Amino acid sequence: MFSESEWELLRNIIQNGLWKAIGETLLMTFVPTILAFVIGLPLGVVLVTGEEKGIHPLPGWLMKLLNFVINILRSVPFLILLIVVLPLSRLLVGTTVGTKAIIAPLVIAAFPFVARLVETSIREVDGGVVEAAQSMGAGTWQIILKVLIPEARPALISNFMVALITIFGYGAMSGAVGGGGLGRIAVNYGYNRYQPLVMYFAVILLVILVQIFQGVGNVLVKKSDKRIR
Amino acid sequence: MIEIRNLSKTFSSGENQVAALADVNLTIPDGEIYGVIGLSGAGKSTLVRCINLLERPSAGQVIVDGQDLTAMSPRQLRQARKSISMIFQGFNLLMQRTALDNICFPLELSGVKKAEARKRARELLELVELPDKAEAYPIQLSGGQKQRIAIARALASDPKVLLCDEATSALDPKTTQSILQLLKELNRKLGVTVVVITHEMRVVEQICTRVAILDHGQVQEEGPTAQVFSNPKSDAGRRLVLPDGEKIHVLPENRLVRLVFNGASAGEPIVARLAREQGILLNILSADTRSIGDRTFGNMVLGLPLDETEAARALLYLRELKGVTAEEVTEYVQ
Ligand SMILES: Nc1ncnc2c1ncn2[C@@H]1O[C@H](COP(=O)(O)OP(=O)(O)OP(=O)(O)O)[C@@H](O)[C@H]1O
Ligand SMILES: [Mg+2]
Questions:
Q1: Which of A121, B82, B192, B215 could cross-link with A137 by S-S, CB 3.0 to 4.6 Å?
Q2: pLDDT per residue over B311-325, tens digit each?
Q3: Where are the extended beta strands (E) located within chain A?
Q4: DSSP labels, B180-212
Q5: Reported pTM
Q6: Which domains does chain B have, with CATH numbers?
Q7: ipTM of this predicted structure
Q8: Is the minimum CB–CB distance between B55 and chain A shorter than 8 Å?
Q9: Nearest CA in chain A to B109
Q10: What are the chain A neighbours of B78 within 8 Å (beta carbons)?
Q11: Local structure of residue A191 (DSSP, 8 states)
């Protein structure tokens, strides 16, 4: 099906750059996901607690602005956002190509999404439990740290995996505009040089990685959720 | 002591205004088990949620031990809430924490050291008779067990007041009994004032020393349970206490007398004796007896004879009976 020279090329790639590409892919997935949560988790919590009927209402205009910004960022297609934001990477890391350059755009593309995921997770927490905490004299911070986040933990873990897999996909896409990792191998060889064998190989690796993430995620959620007998 | 003064709460959603509470005045003495009873929508939950200010009153004051909660800063209010605990119909336990850690929760909020908190939590588990459930998660507990854990959690901060909003309404009759007994015992042992919100008469009968009847956001009557339940004065009270209390019959031709048995033996054949000893025939229009605590109370409406002299004799006879109050009424509830 494939010619000897195609196999030769694949062998060459496996021997020379494969591990590095996998490492880059993991880096491009975990670092932006974690940073997106660093920004998105507090935002998501505020989206719930800051509401008019929330435990710590914030000024209405502020909540409207927050929602507006998140919606705008979420409605721009990722590849467009990537191109718009890449100049920022030059400022931050001095280059617009490669693994490092892609992290800032990934974070910017992902944190609004993460904020919404966190918001829905926090909303799932039973209002009665929050009320019970209030009746015991808990303050806003205590409710956030001791009730909302711990009670939403299984949903948060599950949504962390959703975000991770989405960002993983974005990262692979970014191969088209200079990002690194397995995505670049797939795009460079498969698309630019028409080497389907290499492309399939990279895609299979991507699929396997997603399966691993999801599998690990499911186990973590199950272990962490005390509502399952 | 809890003093509720001119308390009103109006909910407004858009155009609609619902007056859930309208000028409620109540005094709940220390150490009492105080019942608030009323039909659905009467405003019971709103009232109890106003006591710890989970719901902010539209007007009026809530004064607990001389301190006006409505005038407090958020910080002072949080402090005050630590001595006013609450339990709920839906238990509201933290699902991701064990029973023991749930009980530790209010202690954590107050900054009690972990080891000390756990020690106290174990004592409370003993108190609610679930020492072996320390490591169980709420999902692994029955409804009654969950409410026991919630009670232990509510007691962790050594509260002076325990508010119970339909605390037994999600439980079966037997479990309800055991939770009520527990509340009674805690009231006796710890001296905690218990406020019981319920729509069930049986609950009030069994544990409450005093009761207030709430209807349409207003207190219709208030007093010792035995008194209110044996001889309700308000319409709302009669509707609640007397069975099938919807229809009020007025019989214009007969004079009516209501007998209230205050702990006398209700089975005493008064009507038969009147017939035999005085030759006067009375008509039994309604009868209802029940036992409250260890005494028997009853309520009976009799129609007097049309003949005026006979009616007067009968009334005289009835008024002289011991342990029975007779009063003339113009209407009765069937
Ligand atoms: N948050 C709210 N917003 C608008 N109206 C409310 C709200 N809470 C209560 N009400 C209204 O106030 C009235 C009293 O409600 P409340 O929950 O206090 O009654 P209840 O006596 O506890 O009834 P139940 O026995 O059914 O629990 C009802 O008419 C209800 O619709
Ligand atoms: Mg209610």
A1: B82
A2: 888 888 888 877 778
A3: none
A4: HHHHHHHHHHH--EEEEEES-HHHHHHH-SEEE
A5: 0.83
A6: 2-230 (3.40.50.300), 242-329 (3.30.70.260)
A7: 0.90
A8: no
A9: A138
A10: 137-139
A11: I
